[in-house]
Prior knowledge:
- The chain has helices at residues 17-28, 40-50, 64-78, and strands spanning 8-12, 32-37, 55-58, 83-86.
- It is globular, with a radius of gyration of 12 Å.
- It is built from three helices and four strands.
- By secondary structure, the protein is an alpha/beta fold.
- Strands 3-2-1-4 form a four-stranded parallel β-sheet, sandwiched between helices.
- Strand 1 (8-12), helix 1 and strand 2 (32-37) form a beta-alpha-beta unit.
Amino acid sequence: MKQLNNKVIFLTGGSEGIGYECAKAYAHEGANVVVVANNPVTVKRAIEELGSEHLGICCDISMDEEVKKAIQKTLLRYGRIDAIHNNAGI
């Protein structure tokens, strides 16, 4: 069994660079990864590469309301969040 099997990881800044490498590692260990970033093109690409069991959300994390909506979307899809990895830089 994988270490993160069926865990839900909310990952900001997860569509490029170190964040995307973390997203791949989480997915490899069985997690459902929610990739949150402000670039719709890279979010879409990340989810296409990771697979449809993962969720991509375009969000500016410096905006409280956008973050609240991203969390709501995550909860609607998965019913919970097991970990938050704040990788995005502002």
